[in-house]
Specification:
With 84 residues, this protein is an alpha+beta fold. The chain is 37% helix and 40% strand. It has one domain. Strands 1-2-3-4 form a 4-stranded antiparallel beta sheet, with no helix packed on it.
Length: 84
């Protein structure tokens, strides 16, 4: 994982390389928008969809599978931001 772009304070781009459950190279983008006393964070992930992922998506809802990772990551981000 490495940060490939950062436009403080509104955007961070991180590239990730996965080995399991299959090899994948993705780009995660965090967009931050000031909402007065809070900050709205939008987290998107994009990348190629290898054949095995396409087959898997027929049987498994990818939004459901990845959703818990997004929720946990955003929760961790919130805790870290509120600790400062």
């Amino acid at each position: 994982m490495s940060i490939t772009a950062a436009d403080a304070p509104s955007r961070v781009v991180v590239t990730t390389d996965f080995k399991r459950p299959f090899v994948a190279h993705n780009v995660n983008e965090f967009e931050l928008v000031d909402r007065g006393t809070s900050t709205e964070v939008t987290w998107t992930m994009s990348g190629t969809n290898p054949f095995i992922a396409k087959v898997m998506s027929v049987f498994v809802n990818m939004d459901t599978m990845m959703g818990s990772h997004f929720e946990r990551g955003l929760s961790n981000l919130k805790k870290a931001a509120e600790a400062n």
